[in-house]
UniProtKB/TrEMBL annotation:
It comes from the Bacteria. Residues 36-195 form the Metallo-beta-lactamase domain. Gene3D superfamilies: Ribonuclease Z/Hydroxyacylglutathione hydrolase-like (3.60.15.10), Winged helix-like DNA-binding domain superfamily/Winged helix DNA-binding domain (1.10.10.10). It comes from Acidocella aminolytica 101 = DSM 11237. This is Metallo-beta-lactamase domain-containing protein.
């Protein structure tokens, strides 16, 4: 797939992206975050906007305040409420008194939003585009650039450097397919993602991401045609991942495929009706905010014990 790379960006510095748009890259590099979370500063007719203040990191908030340089902040926008994007919201909102705008329904808030956006909602020149899949409350923000470019701040829904994890229950593969298809119908010129560099000709990568998942879904169905699988075993068969976290992430993606196929009536879940599964908690515990990554890996692996089989009458792939 045509992913982009970039050298590690300079830290604690405001980087020019496009006229009127800058980013500060948070110092939270990792296997899921690339060089770190992009916090964007965007000049609008109403004043400055910040998209995704980033993780709860005092130094990053200080860098943002230096970049804001005393300018009036009209709004803080959140693409979604994962902690690498929203952890700094309370500190930045307190320091700037700017209102915080987020999707109207959210499960993971550690603060009270001032503006609740629905699909198509508008604030300071941005239009919210509800794009669940990576997270139920995920929004992309459409914005007209100073040179007339049709920009989309794409958060973690479509990133230039990697595909997104779709981890149930907050992540939903059916929603992810629909939200990728939605972006294919749009005519944006550039995506500005939550991690990684700006993406030009964004529909090429978006189409490739959707095709990649469809290919993976076919592989899941072919594997299920002959036998029953646990999620962990199927993920190990389909993905070659040595890193513990990436292995767990692969299991989450496979589980997400299986739950989508189950919702469509194609596969049959052999639990929890017949067995006591420790992962039942994971499907009801929507708030995962305070988990360390080790706790999250352990929860993911417990969840991966879940077993699936192909439904009768759906064996031809
Ligand atoms: Zn992120």
């Amino acid at each position: 797939m045509g992913f982009l790379t970039e050298p590690e960006p300079p830290r604690h510095i405001c980087l020019d992206v496009l006229p009127g748009i800058q980013r500060v890259v948070a110092a939270n590099p990792g296997v899921m975050t690339y060089h770190g979370t992009n916090s964007y500063l965007v000049e609008t007719a109403d004043g400055l906007a910040v998209i995704d203040p980033g993780p709860d990191d005092t130094a990053h908030v200080a860098d943002l305040l230096v970049a804001i340089a005393g300018r009036e902040l009209s709004v803080i926008l959140l693409t979604h409420t994962h902690t690498d994007h929203c952890g700094a919201v309370p500190a930045l909102a307190k320091a700037t008194r700017a209102p915080v705008a987020v999707y109207e329904v959210s499960v993971n808030l550690g603060f009270v939003p001032d503006i609740k956006l629905s699909d198509g909602g508008k604030v300071s020149g941005f239009t919210a585009v509800h794009t669940p899949g990576h997270a139920t409350d995920h929004l992309c923000f459409a914005f007209k650039g100073q040179a007339g470019e049709r920009l989309l701040f794409s958060g973690d829904h479509v990133m230039s450097w990697s595909s997104s994890i779709v981890s149930p229950p907050d992540g939903d593969m059916g929603d992810y397919y629909r939200s990728l298809s939605l972006l294919l119908e749009r005519e944006d010129d550039l995506f500005l993602p939550g991690h990684g560099p700006m993406l030009s000709e964004p529909r090429i990568l978006t189409a490739a991401l959707l095709a990649h998942r469809q290919k993976r879904e076919r592989a899941v169905l072919m594997a299920l045609a002959g036998r029953e699988w646990s999620v962990a075993a199927l993920a190990a068969d389909l993905y070659a991942k040595a890193d513990l976290f990436l292995k767990a992430a692969a299991q989450r993606n496979v589980l997400a495929h299986l739950l989508k196929l189950k919702a469509e009536g194609t596969v049959r879940e052999l639990s929890p009706e017949n067995q006591d599964h420790p992962d039942n908690i994971a499907l009801t515990a929507l708030a995962v905010k305070h988990e360390s990554w080790r706790e999250r890996v352990s929860r993911m692996q417990e969840d991966a014990k879940r077993r699936f089989g192909l439904s009768a009458g759906e064996a031809s792939v």
